[in-house]
Here is the input.
Amino acid sequence: MKKIVVAGEILVEIMADTAGNGFRAPLALTGPYPSGAPAIFIDQVARMGQPCGIISMVGNDDFGRMNTERLAADGVDISAICIDHERPTGSAFVRYRADGSRDFVFNIRHSACGTLPKSDTVDALLASAHHLHVMGSSLSSPEIIAFNIDAARAICAKGGTVSFDPNLRKEILDAPGMGEAMQAILSATDIFLPSGDEITLLTKAKDEAGAVAELLARGIRAIVHKQGSTGVAYHDAAGRRFVPAFKVQEVDPTGAGDCFGGAFTALWLRGEDIDRALTLAAAAGALAVTERGPMEGAATLDNIRAFAASQGRFV
Here is the structure.
């Protein structure tokens, strides 16, 4: 099977036990949990039984060891995760507000994963890859942006494919050079995985239909428009289709989109029927929200199929 590689942040997440606003007084916390959008994505890919690896940095600390042990146990190639002996593993403190929005305290840019490693193991992992996944949340510095652009072009040059989950706020695009960089990545993209309003984030068109037409005209083969608890709209040259979301009791929504993306990308690379791939990916996203902790709901393909069947959606 084709090997998927991602480059980006590995961190721990520590969650407030109660809803409220911010962290301005002592409160009970639960964690640490393995986290980082690229790490969640690639863990779900591994749980699907797909060959995969991640390029990242962790500190020489228990947070880093917890992450690498978890990823390795789930089947991720961790040979290109390097240890930074000067900086700690990244972290995110998270508290949900009553309306479901979140307050974060991040340590990413100045942590180990604020840069990417340069080593023979990184070169070897990229050389073995057939597919690159780019996560917009990881594009936090000119160095990391340039790495992903170069890697995408190298993968495409040898006949491989690229998926891109923008996971970006509009304000980030105003940073010098960021808009041009996103367009460069989009030009190499085969699978585009926007959520909500991100469908128009990188297009001149300001409505879904116009954005889809523009993106397909650029050569993107599949647009997978994630719409949260509503479902997912899929667009390709053959037209549009829609798959509704599964209804579950939400415990923690963090990581749902990453698990959806990991499951769908693995299935797409296997040539799975699109309706079946979308349904299974939706099931993976639904299972992700049923566990506390951003990576704890990642499920095996057998468990995803069993869950879909239990909901009357046989795949």
